[in-house]
Write a structure and sequence with these properties.
The complex is a heterodimer of chains A (278) and B (383).
Chain A (H helix, E strand, L loop, with lengths): L6 E3 L4 H9 L5 E4 L5 H6 L7 E4 L9 E3 L3 E5 L4 H5 L10 H7 L4 H4 L4 H7 L5 H9 L2 E6 L2 E6 H4 E3 L2 E2 L6 E8 L6 E7 L9 E8 L4 E7 L6 E2 L1 H10 L1 H15 L5 H23 L1
Parallel strand pairs in A: 1-3, 2-3
Antiparallel strand pairs in A: 4-5, 5-10, 6-7, 6-10, 8-9, 11-12, 12-13, 13-14
Chain B lengths: L1 E7 L2 E7 L5 H8 L18 E4 L2 E4 L12 E3 L8 H12 L9 H15 L4 H7 L10 H12 L14 E2 L26 E4 L6 E9 L3 H9 L1 H6 L4 E7 L2 E10 L2 E14 L4 E10 L4 E13 L5 E12 L8 H24 L34
Parallel strand pairs in B: 1-5
Antiparallel strand pairs in B: 1-2, 3-4, 3-5, 7-8, 8-14, 9-10, 10-11, 11-12, 12-13, 13-14
Helix pairs in contact in B: 2-3, 2-5, 3-5
């Protein structure tokens, strides 16, 4: 229950961090908060030779915004988002999601970028960023590249991120005042990883209509047909279509689990209906 | 060794420790502050919760190196804290502790709840306390104590908002992913079903793969275990004699890297085109072992192609077993299956296998007498 021997490095700049990571033989692992990595280290399921603590790089804690997009640095903690430490670009969605992640003591350390890079498919940000149509910003020694969040995850614990690269920021569309969203997660216990995540977003002003079913198995599924229904006929019709679409796009799931996903998605759409009715 | 300087309960402390030292170890073993209790050591139970730079954090998944420069307050550091005094008193009156193991973490969390939220109802307190486990199940008294102390308290002012730098955010268009993402259901006839096998502690999954070559060719290739291993990144056969096979399988799944060494038995029924391999492997690093069995049948498929029916069953033991999340195994198997089919087809066509497109993780490891997949199952924590 103690980590294998390792070295600890604390780069103070992006260049320094990338230089450490560029040595592919170094078996270095980025440490962005360590709330998933820590247990794996303690159990020696992972044995990196070097921990690269990126929490002291000012650039990774920057917020940038324009009228259309906003960019959040990778090392903002879940608790900081929960507390509204950065301007709320998403009409309350990010703080709401953040509050449901694990426990406060974990949220005080765990970071958005760390969670995305770790890529446990049951984690909240993996699904949220895909649903929000966010873009993941990746920096390597060759420069910067951007990957749509829904393509970032190839599968469980497997992402677009190369070993020598750093996830630096997430770019999100700025929601309009007309935006409505619903987020519902099925957990056996508060703070546990989700069994199923349902997420629905409608923002007619910026043309964003998205419905997502997130499950602990792998890539979250965007329900494109139901999202179209959401745009044209509203949340109630979309909830009906979602059942069919989930059965279609996730045929491999056990029926009971599929039902959890259907319930999560339908409840997220129900939250939109409730806001509209109020 | 690493030299770290931090402030513990208001006093400067310098220590020379191994970088892997957990913060709770540093506190307990080096500084003799044994009020911090160590329970699960995986961030679940909350017994080790201490205040780091004003915020409660888990000291079992914080390390000496990353605590360098921090200010830490342990349960011993709250003697003169007015709010903690009220909490201690309320905990006593409400019988909010029995064995006392969870109490230091409970108190640290309780203090944070009241500071952040002010007067709070029982339901929210329970939600906020969900990361602290009491195995005496004394939650009723704990919640009552916190609720009582919170009466009339006012929430701390919210923290300042980090201002956004105005300017254009995305100056460059979105790039295409480096490698094509494998669609989740790509295997031609996706009819896998995960389930618990008839044998106790075993899980199993069935997978169908369509391959564009006639059954006899596919069967021949699958009968050649060495050839099969080439389609499988991370796999290596070290010995093959009659029906005995020895090999190695490097599996990497995110930060988890496992090297399984093992052996197995191969059984080939050419007449019915059924093969079976059973084996067991061990990973010295994680102290885990795996045993598994794979059965494959080659059937005629559509348009003179073949259908490979694969049934996998496995059992993990040791530390890896704690992380065996069946659903993820299924996802990994599906992704690997599509990579395997691509490689098998390339191999049948005599083309080179694109080794760069694949990360070395292994389901087909089973076929090699070594084995399989393991994965994280933890509750409640994102990186």
């Amino acid at each position: 229950m103690k980590p294998a021997s390792l070295e600890y490095v604390r780069p103070r700049s992006m260049e320094e961090a990338l230089a450490v990571l560029s040595d592919e033989t170094a078996n270095a692992k980025i440490f962005a908060g360590g709330q998933s990595l820590g247990p794996m280290l303690n159990l020696r399921l992972t044995r990196p030779a070097k921990l690269v603590d990126i929490r002291h790089i000012p650039e990774l804690k920057a917020v940038r915004a324009d009228a259309r997009l906003c960019s959040i640095g990778a090392t903002f903690t879940h608790a900081e988002l929960e507390d509204g430490a950065i301007e709320d670009f998403t009409r309350g969605l990010l703080p709401y999601v953040a509050r449901g992640i694990a426990y406060r003591a974990v949220r005080n350390r765990g970071t958005v970028g760390g969670s995305l890079a770790h890529a446990d498919p049951a984690a909240d940000w993996v699904s949220t960023m895909a649903a929000i149509d966010a873009t993941i910003v990746i920096r390597g020694q060759a420069g910067e590249r951007r990957v749509p969040a829904q393509q970032f995850l190839a599968g469980a614990f497997t992402t677009e991120l190369g070993d020598t690269e750093l996830l630096t920021a997430v770019e999100l569309p700025r929601f309009s005042a007309a935006a409505r969203w619903g987020y519902y997660k099925v957990c056996r216990k508060t703070g546990e990883f989700a069994k199923a995540i349902g997420l629905a977003i409608q923002d007619p002003k910026i043309g964003l209509f998205r419905i997502l079913a997130g499950s602990p198995e792998g890539r979250p599924a965007l329900l494109t047909r139901s999202a179209e229904t959401l745009a044209t006929r509203g949340a109630e019709h979309a909830a009906r279509d979602a059942r069919e679409e989930i059965e279609e796009v996730l045929p491999n799931l056990a029926p009971a689990h599929r039902q959890q996903l259907i319930a999560a998605v339908q409840r997220s759409l129900g939250q939109i209906l409730l806001v509209e009715a109020a | 060794m690493l030299s770290v300087s931090l402030t513990v309960n208001g006093r400067p402390v310098t220590a020379t420790v191994e970088p892997r030292t957990q913060l709770c170890e540093l506190l307990r073993e080096d500084l003799n502050l044994t009020g911090t209790h160590v329970g699960c050591e995986q961030g679940v139970c909350g017994a080790c919760t201490v205040v780091v730079d004003g915020k409660p954090q888990r000291s079992c998944i914080s390390y000496a190196g990353d605590s360098d420069g921090c200010s830490v307050i342990t349960i011993e550091g709250f003697d003169d804290d007015a709010l903690m005094e009220q909490l201690r008193d309320a905990f006593s009156r409400h019988h909010a502790l029995q064995c006392g193991f969870c109490t230091p973490g409970m108190l640290v969390t309780a203090r944070d709840i009241i500071l952040r939220l002010g007067e709070t109802g029982a339901a929210r307190i329970r939600e906020e306390l969900s990361g602290n486990l009491c195995r005496c199940t004394g939650y009723v008294g704990i919640v009552e104590a916190i609720e009582e102390v919170s009466k009339g308290k006012v929430a701390r002012a919210p923290q300042t908002v980090v201002a956004a730098i105005e300017g254009t955010v995305a100056v460059r268009p979105v790039d295409a992913p480096m490698k094509p993402a494998v669609p989740p259901n790509r295997p031609a006839a996706p009819t896998a079903s995960a389930g618990v096998g008839a044998r106790k502690g075993w899980s199993s999954i069935e997978q169908r793969l369509a391959v564009g070559f006639p059954p006899e060719i596919v069967w021949n290739r699958l009968s050649d275990i060495r050839q099969v291993s080439f389609c499988l990144p991370g796999a290596e056969i070290t010995e093959l004699q009659d029906d005995r096979v020895r090999g190695r399988m490097n599996v990497s799944l995110g930060p988890i890297k496992v090297a399984l060494n093992g052996d197995g038995n191969v059984l080939l029924d050419a007449e019915n085109r059924i093969g079976r391999l059973s084996g067991r492997g061990q990973d010295a690093g994680s102290g885990s072992s795996a045993e598994g069995e794979v059965e494959w049948r080659v059937l005629p498929g559509e348009a003179s192609g073949s259908l490979i029916l694969v049934n996998l069953s496995w059992r993990l033991s040791g530390r890896l077993a704690q992380f065996n999340r069946a659903g993820i195994v299924q996802d990994v198997i599906q992704r690997l299956a599509s990579i395997f089919v691509t490689n098998l087809e390339s191999s049948l066509k005599g083309e080179a296998i694109d080794e760069t497109s694949i990360k070395p993780l292994g389901i087909w490891s089973l076929m090699l007498g070594v084995i399989r997949i393991r994965v994280a199952r933890w509750r409640g924590r994102n990186a």
